[in-house]
Amino acid sequence: MEWEIVNSKAVTPKGVLENATIRIRDGRIVSISSGTPKDSLPIRLNLGGLFVFPGLINAHDHLLGTYLPKVGTNRPYLNWLPWDNDLKSSVVYAERQQLEPEQLYLLGSYKNLISGVTTVLDHIPHFVQTPFLERSPVRILDHFTLAHSICSYSLNWGDGPEIEYARAKEGNLPFVTHISEGFDEESREAVRYLKSIGCLGENTVLVHGIAFDSEDIKSLAQAKAHLVWCPESNLFMFGKTTSIQEVLEAGINVSLGTDSPMSGSLNLLDEIRSARNFFQKEYGKELDPKIVFRMVTENPAKALRISNDLGSLEAGKIADLLVLSSEKDDAYQALCSADLSSVRLVVRDGKPSYGDHSLKEFFDETGVVGREIKIAGTDKYLAGDPLGLLESVTRALGYKKDLAFFPVG
Ligand SMILES: [Zn+2]
After folding, report:
1. Which residues lie below 8 Å from residue 341, measured CB to CB, with a gap of 6+?
2. Residue 218 alpha carbon to ligand 1 centre in Å
3. How many Å lie between the centroid of ligand 1 and the Cα of residue 99?
C-alpha cells in the first residue's frame, strides 16, 4: 500500500519541515520533502498544516497492571516491596483479577494508542506478554532481557542479572531492570552492585533510580547506560524522584515511561506534564520541550536498540506517526502541551490505528477496520473492537467501571 500526507509540519531530526509531504509505502517512510507534488498518489491525506511527530515510545509500562484506582495506602514507601504488598492485598487488585490478562493487555494498548504511543516496553517476563503481542493495537516490544530489580527481595523475573545481561550483549538487546526504587541500603547500593558484577554497560536500561547519588550518576554516564524516568509514579509512591538535572548534565540518555496507572500517570502525555511540572518546581526553570520530545522518541529508540527502525521521521524508517493539533507555533511546545484532545491521527506500521471520525474514509481506503467511538467527548475512529472489549470488561466485573485512561463517552 502506498499513500501520502501533504500540507503537514513534519518534526524531523533536522528540524521542522513546513508544508511537508510524507510518502509511505508498505509500512515504511519512503520520503519526506517540502512542497506538494503534482503527481498525487492514489491515497492523499491533506493535514491542513497539522504537526506530524514520530509515534511516541513509552519506555516503561506494565500492561497487565492497566487498572485503576492507584494503590498507595501506606505512602510514602521505603521501597517498592511494601507497595507491591499493598497492591496485592488491595480490593482493587482482587477486582482486577476478575479480568483476563488479554483484557488488561488490550486496555493498556488502547490507553497508549489514544495518547499517540505506538511502541511500548512492557516490563514483564516474556511468557506473560507473548500471547498478546499479535493482537495488540500498539507494538509491544519483546526483544529485551530483564530482571525485576537489583536486590535480594527482587521478584523472580528472568534468569538473574548476570545471565540476562550476557544474553543482552550477545543479542544486541536492552537489559531492562528497575533500580534504586527506594531508600533502603540495598536500593542505595544497587548501581554499585550491578557494576561489581559487570552488568552496567551500553545495553543496560535502568528504570527509576530514585536513590541515585553522584557516584551512581557518574557510573551510568561512564558505562553509557540508559535511564528511564517515571516521575509521576516516583512522586506518588515516594514523594521523590531521581536527581534528573544532574542526570541530564552528566549526558545520560533519558527516556520517559508511565509505569502502570496503578502507581503512575494515565498516559505518556500526562507523564510529560508531570516531568515538566516537577522540573519547574524543583529547579525553578523549564525543562526544555525539545529535550522532552527526545525523551519520548529518539532516546527510548536508542536505549531499546530499535533506532534503525523507530524513534524519528526519516526515510527508510517504519511509518509510525502521531498527528497533533495545537495552538502553539513551536512543535516541541505543541507536544508538551498536548492532551488526548490534541491527538488527531495515529499511524502504526503505515496504517491508521486511531484518529478523528472525519478520517473514516481514509481508514476505509487503507483497509483498516475499526469502530466509531467517543473519546473524551470527541468522535473518533479506533482500530479493532474497543467497544466489544469494554462490554466484555463490564460483563466480567458485573458493573460499568470508569477507567480514566480510556475515557470512552
Ligand atoms: Zn515498573
Report:
1. 376, 378
2. 23
3. 21
Cα of 220 to ligand 1 centre, how many Å? 19
**pLDDT of 250:** 98
**In this structure, are residues 319 and 313 in contact, taking their beta carbons and an 8 Å threshold?**
no
What per-residue confidence (pLDDT) applies to 167?
Answer: 98
Total tally of structural domains belonging to the chain: 2
323 vs 355: CA distance, rounded Å: 9
400 alpha carbon to ligand 1 midpoint, in Å? Answer: 28
Contacts of 18 (CB under 8 A, 6+ apart): 9, 34
**CATH number of the domain enclosing 213:** 3.20.20.140
Percent of the chain with pLDDT over 70: 100
Q: What is the mean pLDDT of the chain?
A: 97
Give the neighbor-by-neighbor strand order of the sheet with 139-140: 56-61, 117-122, 139-140
Same domain, 157 and 232: yes
**Dihedral pair phi/psi, residue 121, rounded to 5°:** -95, 105
Whether residues 161 and 14 share a domain: the answer is no
How many whole angstroms from 77 Cα to the centroid of ligand 1?
A: 15
What is the distance in A from the centroid of ligand 1 to the CA of 263? 9
Dist. CA 264 → ligand 1 center (Å): 9
SS3 percent helix, strand, coil of the chain, rounded to 5, is 35, 25, 40
Q: Of the candidates 271, 303, 335, which is a domain's last residue?
A: 303
Give the model confidence (pLDDT) of 19-58 as tens digits.
999 999 999 999 999 999 999 999 999 999 999 999 999 9
**CATH number for position 323:** 2.30.40.10
Q: Establish if 407 belongs to a structural domain.
A: no
Separation of CA 267 and ligand 1 centre (Å): 14
By residue range, what is the domain housing residue 86? 57-303
Mean pLDDT value of segment 74-89? 97
Q: Are residues 34 and 183 in the same domain?
A: no
Predicted local confidence at residue 351, as pLDDT:
97
